[in-house]
Structures are given as C-alpha cells and as structure tokens.
C-alpha cells in the first residue's frame, strides 16, 4: 500500500467488541446499558421533522451545550460536544500532542488509546499497574520522567472498574506539566456514597479535561454523542480549531439534549445497574471467580482453577451469551462481563453454574 503514511501502514487498527443484530443474544460484551433510553428521547425522536435536515446543524451543538452546562453547574464555554467520547480522545491528541511527542497511559487500559497514538504518530509511554490494579506508588515520578505532553487515565478504570479519588487525580494534575485527560466514560455508575465529582477540579485546573459519553449512562451508544469538560482555555482550541465543522448531527444533538435533561430517569437506571452489579459479583464469587470490586457497569472476573477464559468465552458464545475476552497479558485468565438486566445476569449465572458446579447425581 504505497500511499499510506508509514505509521498507518504498520499499525494494527482498533478491534471493537462484536456487535450482533439478533435479539436472542445476551449481549454482555461492550458495556452497553441494558435499559432503553429515556421516554423523553423517544418523544423527541418522534417529533423530529425531516425537513429540518435540509439545513446544517448548530456547529457547536447548542442547545446541548447549554443543557449540559446547566446539568454540571458550569458554563457552556467549559463544554465541547463530540461525535462519541472516542472523537474527543482523537481531538485531544490532535490538539495537544504533536507527532513524535509522548502520550502516557496505564497498562492495561482502554485499547483505543494506543491506536490513536499510532495514527497521530505519538510515542506511547505505558505505566504498568500494580497487581491490585492500583497506580504504582511512583506514578507521578514515572509520568514526569516520561516527558509526556498528554496523560490519559480512564476512571473508573477499564477493564477493572477501579476508581481513583478526586484527591488522587488532583495530586497527579498538580504535579504534571502536561495535559491530564480523565476518561469518565463509566463515571455515572460510581456509588453515590463515594460523592465522586471531578468536574470542579477539572474547571479549576488549566491542565485537566474530562471525557463524558452518552453511550453508557444514557443508553445511547448507537447515537454517537459525547463531550469534553474543562477550562475555557483548553476547550476553546478543540471547539474552534481542531473539531470538524459539523462534528455532531442535528438528530444526535436533539436526542442528546433530551437525554441529558432527563436526569431522573438516568439516575434511576444507574442505581439499578449498581445494585445488579453487586448481585452479579456475589453470584460470580460463589462460583469461585475472583471478581475485582467495580465502580463501573462491568466486572472483571478471573476464572476459577486456572480454567481457560478463551474457551469459556467461546462456549458462552455458542450459547448466545457474549462476554469480552482480551488476548492480552494479565487478562487472558479473565473475562470482562457487562452488567445486564436481572434476567440476562441470571441466564449468564445459570450457564456458568452448569459448567462450574459438579453435581453428584
Ligand atoms: C474507556 C472508554 N472510553 C471511551 C469510550 C468511548 O465511548 P463512545 O465513543 O461510545 O462515547 C469507551 C467505549 O467503550 C470506553 O470504554
């Protein structure tokens, strides 16, 4: 392929989780929300007049920006709407990390980060997590030695669901010369008792951006809508320079606006997912899986007795239950399981019980 840039020719590309168009499949592999979007989203969709599509949408997705700003108690200048959270990741690298400059991430982490750095021709610096999946004690020191322009931390962490406190994030941001992007794709599912809210610290620091998405908490993965939160100084170059002129479409803007205004509906769903996450973790633990306590809408579960995670993944798949297997160091003996509806979780547990519990009859 002589026309590709060298870095594109040699890179692998992102491999997304399997998508299926079959209602019989229990889909616990890509951390989608098991509940439908809010009735207000459905009503807004029904009310869209196709004649409105004749015109270009609002370039900056007003009034979504205004609604999101109200929801977080910040100003519209602190928000940049994007075509899914993934577009924000790409835009952050385009805006803040030039070719050859270093981007720091943890190992393991969301695998798209690596792919985006390969596209952008950045250097990738990976900082290995402890056995407990915590950041190493010398994380800040390693970050400063790496000379990274951008550090991306996913919080709650994927694929483990571990949460870093706002205090820990603040300490990292305050001791880092580059830009800290905190990917909060799963933050809606954090237990309320943690009182976790990184928004005020992101606004106060001129080197912190947060990623939010409507894909998970608002059941809108098919819509492709996310946004960044940060100081106006950081948001402005993304919003007015590097973003595509019309990066979010009219229908997505309308539905995202309806979703972020139906917070009561969303909050009720988040609570159900949290409760079912704990029930699912207990059921897996009873089957002798080692489950990492999670603050997200998924669980990372290590199989009992050194059994092969890949073959269990394949067995479940043949029974129309999809979970995620990562062919990566430290993950090959584990499965990542999204929290489904109570009946989906029960079906998974029944399938696992049939495989893992020996009956004497
Ligand atoms: C850690 C993490 N960040 C960001 C995203 C991006 O989500 P989206 O582009 O659907 O908003 C995902 C999606 O799975 C994710 O797992």
Overall SS class: alpha/beta
* Rough outline: globular
Considering DSSP H and I runs of 4 or more, what fraction of the residues is helical? 25-40%
Strand content: 5-15%
**What is the number of domains?**
2
Neighbour order of strands in the largest sheet: 2-8-7-6-5-3-4
CATH fold name of the largest domain: Aspartate Aminotransferase, domain 2
Please report the first level of CATH classification, the CATH class of the largest domain: Alpha Beta
Rounded to the nearest angstrom, the distance between the terminal CA atoms is 61 Å
Profile the largest sheet: 7 strands, mixed
The count of DSSP E runs of length 2 or more, i.e. the number of strands, is 12
Going by CATH, what is the homologous superfamily of the largest domain? Type I PLP-dependent aspartate aminotransferase-like (Major domain)
* Global Rg: 21 Å
**Average pLDDT reading:** 96
